[in-house]
Predict the 3D structure of the following.
Amino acid sequence: MSRAATNSGIVGLGAIVDRPIEVERLVQQVANAGAGASSLFVGTVRDSNDGRPVVGIDYQAYGPMAERELRAIIGEARERHGTLGIAAEHRVGFLLIGEISVAIAASHARRGPAIDAVRYIIEQIKRRLPVWKREHYADGTREWIDPTTPFGLAVTGVGDESHP
Amino acid sequence: MTITVLLFASYADAFGRGRLSVPLSPGATVGDVVARVRADAGGDRLPPRPLVAVNHHYAPYDRIVGEHDEVALIPPVAGG
């Protein structure tokens, strides 16, 4: 995982990390002499959700499964779009506003498939990757986000560490 | 036999811990695991049919589990 791609290698790297994501490094990892385009997606922590001021997000993952699933998604994207290189990382831990939570880079001879591959990967991450986020709000409360449940009907909030 | 079930995020909060030991009969399925977990204190805060992973793969409810399988309940995912 540490070895960056040479400009002739076909790569597909995916990792769950607990340190800042360096997007420049991901772009370098997918560099390829045959590439006419590299596409990059960067997901960041924003300062509000549904009108509530957010101060940070705590990301948790089921590490081994998340990494396996991410690599499976990367393999699917490569098969569908014929990319030359793909590198993706999802970060866990407590992230402040503006910090990068996920980044995906893909290279291809042409721009279309490079962009499509990145789009495929982020959509599948949203759907399948066993990663959860607990938003911390400006008023001191915090809540696990459940994208399948609108507005606070989720199993969240009450208890946390104090629940027996 | 006893199976260890891993919990995350809101599900871990519901039980106040990240893993449960679940006693089961040999030949038990993923569905049996879910039924036992939901019957425990805190289990009423789980949905009727939570996603389950066995050995890091999403698994159907009729899959048979054994003591050496890694079983995890997967709350609605929210990555990105």
